Amino acid sequence: VIQQPLQVQYKWLASSMKIPVLEVDASVINSNEVVTGVTYQDSLRSNLFQVGVQDPAAGFARAGIFPNPAVDHTDVQLFSAQESEVDITLYDNSGRMVRNYGTRSLGSGETVITLDLSGLAAGIYKLQVAGRGQLYCGKIAICGG
What we know:
Elements: E1 6-13, E2 20-29, E3 32-41, E4 48-51, E5 54-58, E6 62-66, E7 73-80, E8 84-91, E9 97-106, E10 109-116, E11 123-131, E12 134-142
């Protein structure tokens, strides 16, 4: 049995508007609440804008990074409908590759991959998990230990 994470959505409404001015989507994964998306209403425009702590997880049923912020390691949790292989790469804020974690095998269902972050400077990093028809991009905040 594959346990899907609990989905949580917070909405803030303005009295003069019929749609939320701010929505925060989150998943509860292993007792940690992970923000998966933020949507807000811009006061100058009438449509909603999507911003994200995590980019879409194309080809994955669900994806998340925890703990985040991290110090020396983090776990990447991926829910895949099929077995596959993915390449995992970490980039710094300027887009320079700082770690290549190589190719990893994913089983059908949930896979948790622990990534070693030791030796990396504090900052924001972009994680990319890419495979055949699958792409996940997320941000990891690394704090000094």
